[in-house]
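Dear colleagues,

I hope this message finds you well. In preparation for our joint manuscript, I am sending the RagB/SusD family nutrient uptake outer membrane protein (Chryseobacterium terrae) sequence together with its predicted structure, so that both groups work from identical material. I would be grateful if you could confirm receipt.
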Amino acid sequence: MKINKILFSISISALFFSAVSCERYLDTEPISDQTVDINNPLATAKSAEEAMITIYSDFGNEYWQLDYFLNGDAQTDISYAGGDNVQNFQQDEYRILATNTNVNRDWGYLSNFMDHCNKILNYVDGAQDLSTARKNQMKAEASIFRGMYLFHMVQLWGDIPIVTKSFITINSENFDEAYTQLYPKRQTVNDVYAQIISDLEGAIANAPASSEKYKANKGAAYALLAKVYATKPNPDWAKVKEYSDLVISQGYSLLPVYDHLFDSNHEGNTESIFEANGNASNIWAWCTSMFVGTDWKKFNTPSNDLVKTYNDTGDTQRLNTTVKFTPVTWSDNYWSGNNFPFMNKMRLTDGNQNFYILRLTDIILLKAEANIRLGNFSEAQTLINQVRNRVALPPITITSEDDGINKVLAERKLELAFEGHRWFDLKRTGKAISILSQQKNGSGAILPYAANINQNRLLWPIPQAQMDKNQNLTQNPGY
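The corresponding structure tokens are as follows:
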């Protein structure tokens, strides 16, 4: 059979979940005689809408239901890994190996999520019975998701591949391009951020209104751009302020009671920018059972340091919302069984738990951070104190740039604990090593594993399983 007659369905996820070589693919017979439009896989509105549902259904995936929160908090002074998974203990204690299965699965999940976005971006224009306006909105939503997932990956691994094509067929005409996308090289961090910014800025015009909180909307694009410009090499703090102001201009406002953010009676509230809508259906939210309860130790056990920080600050409102102490019949290395803490921001166990991807307070504090970097201490104080006022804490003052960064980080720690931000906040501000190397246990002694943190450990290793499949990948330093 000639190459140009070999047509078969192939997803970019083959790069991550199959070790079959390109030569093997070219020797493969068609798996079906079913006739498909190989140039137009999203040929109908129905198929296009189903592809969009897939993108949102990814919120029910293990990455979002468990790993995202572990990655953001268990690697920090917010929490201990909890549970009994040795792969999580490697993350918690800054001794990850390239063979760590959590690291490998997250690479695979994030890459597969982006392939779902690429399908829309590459093919939705071929849906003949779909309006142009709907196509443009779909592409905007997919672009926001792809930009967000690239942002997650570049923060975890540094240089990463940029894959923008989802191949439905491979033939002699597209083989060279397919190879570079199925077996991609890592691109520089600067190139990745350029792609992220292009995706997000390009999506704004056709994104859903900011009021549509369960969709990748305009406010989400603005918020992600603020975070991206703060995190990329050589941050652009003027851009951070610009996009933070665009977020704030969308009509969001702080809820008057902090606990209402998490009591499940105020879903899609005025503070929410972008929210995963657990619905016990295509987004079955099983995350709560990973973090709360008394039947086993669960993950993301609140740290002694976090509880001490709340108590030392007199922040009883956020402590009571964030951490729940419960008597249990067992203990671990950090807490006795008589009074064991669980994270408390997820409380529904029926599959309907919502969680925030982005919310206003994150952006208010990010704008404060930008003002600190720009020397506008008075404006930064006002923003931080707006957040503190809600929970009846006294105002702070800022005396220098370093003092301001320390205070905004302290506020983010209290406000955003267990929402997946701390690891990335510490890295962005250059404070990860100095803070995490001083983590203490309940007796005030520095934790033994705190000494493991170093510059190389701020990035994860490229998974060995991915390198075994793709000879074009290279390893990060120190692994």
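For the figure legend, we might mention the following. The longest helix spans residues 132-157. The radius of gyration is 23 Å.

With kind regards,
E.M.
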